[in-house]
Amino acid sequence: MRTFYRYLMVVAVLISCYDSTIFSQPISRPFPFTIPLNGINQTEFNSPPLKPISRISIKDGHFATADGKRARFIGASFYYTACYPDSADAISIAKRLGSLGFNAVRFNAYDLRNWNESTFLAPGNSSDALSPEQMKRIDWFIYQLSLNGIYIYLPILSEWLPRQDDGIAKWDSLPRYISFIEPDFLPKHKQVIRMLMNHINPYTQNAWKDEPAIAFMDLTYENSLIYQWQNGNLLYPKQYGLSSYNVKRLDSLFSLILQSKYGNDLALKKAWESLPASSANILMNGGFEDAADPTTNWQLSVNEQAKSVLLTSDGNKVEGERSANVKVSQTSGLSYAVQFINQTAKLVKYRDYELRFSAKTTAAVGKRPFIVVAQRGMQPYEVYGLYQQDTVTANWKEYVIPFRANTTDSSTVNLSFYLGQATGDFFLDNVQLREATTQGLMSNESMANFSVKRSSWYDNSINIQRMADNAIFYTGLVKNYTDQMYSFLKDSIGTKALISGGTQTELLNDLFAIKNTDFTNEFGGWDGADQKGGIQYIQNAGMTSSPYAAAFPEYARAKIKDKPFLISGFLMAYPAANQNEMLTMLPAYSAYQDWDGFFLTYYNDSRYTFNNNYIDSTAAYQLKNSTFLSMMPQAAKAFYSGAIAPAKRTINLKYTTNNLLTPQWQLYRPHWLEINTDQRMLLFRKIQIDSFDAEEQTEQPHRTIAELSSDNGVDIKDMISDTEELLWNAADSFFTVNTPRYISATGSIGGKILRFTPDKVDVRVERLDAGSVGSFSWISEDSLPVTKSRKSLLTLSSRAVNSGAVWQLKNALTIWGKGPMQTEAMTIRFAFESGYDSIRITPLDSAGNRIANQIPITKMSGRQYTFDIDQDKVNSIWFIVEQLGINGIAEESTDEFTLNTLYSSYDQSSCRAIATFPQSGNAAALTITNGLGIETMLWHGTANGQTEQINIPVTFASGIYLLKAETSGKMVTHKFMIVR
Question: What is the pTM of this model?
Answer without folding.
Answer: 0.84
